[in-house]
Amino acid sequence: MESRITDADLAIIGGGVGGVAAALAALRHGLRVVLTEEGDRIGGQFTSQGVPPDEHRWIEQFGCTASYRRYRDAVRDHYRTWYPLTAAAKNDPHLNPGLGRVGALCHEPRVSGAVLRALVDPYLSSGRLRILLGARPVAAQTSGDRVSGVTVRRADGGLVHLTAPYYLDATELGDLLPLAGVEHVTGFESRHDTGEPSAPDVAQPANMQAFSWVFAVDHREGEDHVIDRPARYDHWRAYRPDYWPGSQIGLTAPDPRTREPLTRTFTPNLTSGPVLADQSQDPGDRELWEFRRAVAREQYEPGFVTSDVTLVNWPMIDYVDGPIIGVSEQDKERHLAGARELSESMLYWLQTEAPRPDGGRGWPGLRLRPDVMDTPDGFAAAPYIRESRRIRAEYTVVEQDVSLAVRGEAGAAPYDDTVGIGMYRIDLHPSTGGDNYIDVPSCPFQIPLGALLPVRVRNLLPAGKNIGTTHITNGCYRLHPVEWNIGEAAASLVAYCLKETVEPHDVRRKDVHLRSFQSALKADGVELAWPEIKGY
Hints:
The chain has 16 helices and 23 strands. By secondary structure, the protein is of the alpha/beta class. It has a 5-stranded parallel sheet with strand order 4-3-2-8-23. A 4-stranded mixed sheet has the order 1-7-6-5, with no helix packed on it. A hairpin with a 2-residue loop joins strand 5 and strand 6. Helix 1 runs parallel beside helix 4.
């Protein structure tokens, strides 16, 4: 069965962090939007991938858009309204539901799903937003330098043909770019091409960051929840990348910042008290139970929660055997299955072999939590993706623009065409090309409009990790507040162009339009510059 949608002002392909932010921005500006999502829910990393926000140290004060802050506030309000928090937790203006150390808002993926759906629900009721779940892009029609249509295939096999003046690629892997013939790059650019200090001498297009399959567990002491031994457990139990200090499955892994071997601890239901969630001071991964904890017993009235819940997204489950971009469908499925097997093997090892403080081995009481992950088995609905195809852009952000070692006291390179800001270390996980961590201090940076503009195509814009960054600078532009800002800026640009009858590229080239667009962003609560602060 085939159908057509022809009355949208904007078609957003991909319902992850950037896609949702883009939809909300476009809808605020009165546009009619169709949003497609390959999975069964919107939210991407926040929901289907099981990753609470990774944020910078100033997030409670500044450094994100007003709409992103509204999302963060709504998560906290959801807990305050519906959960029996202690008085101290309920009154904490900076409530961190899980007391996780990776960031200031560690919470359940299911809650993010509820909050994001609540944010879009009014527009579903009004009819100005249509969401197509289980819809994967399979084709794009083009005419010269313009996209004239996009076709998505629904889970039932039916095709839906979308026609709109503008299209956003907000997919996790930049899947719309090759379909529409948009010039793009993958993997590692060469030092010859970018001048980046951390780049290799020769480009490595198949060398991409690891992806991971996250899962949620609690712990029931005295109970047995050991999963079936994974079929390839022996393979993964012995697996060791060249740069790893031992078997990848274990508690010892490279320290991302020093690359020296570091043995973490793992202590289920550790009582923490207040935790420091500040990546500039502490990466947070020394005690793995606390690292990405999403439910903390200490935050609730006594007896309500009998065990914490932690989200396992650790170096030990980073899959580096091969990429899922630029390979055959068969190889992609093989690598996806391999990542899932690696995570299952890590769980089995934790349940049966992990060292305990009492000298024993294994935590058989570790129990998968499907309810927290909102999946049938407690594993995330989709893998956690760190790297995408990236457009060849009018301007490409390079390491020299943001590296603290290069820029020093001068701070990140200023962009006259800024459409937002962000901050994170240049955080590259081990890669499919055999690289160890590349973890470089960075400066608080701006998002240049030029990085959102393809070199040729006029009416398709990136709305996530697929902007004009390099493999290296993707490491700091890929984080959640930045991806949200990118999606919001892209959709706001479309709204501006439709209103002013101007094309995106001309907004950047004509000063009168650039200043007017930047003023509109600021009126919407998009911060375009940082106060005077230093990176880390």
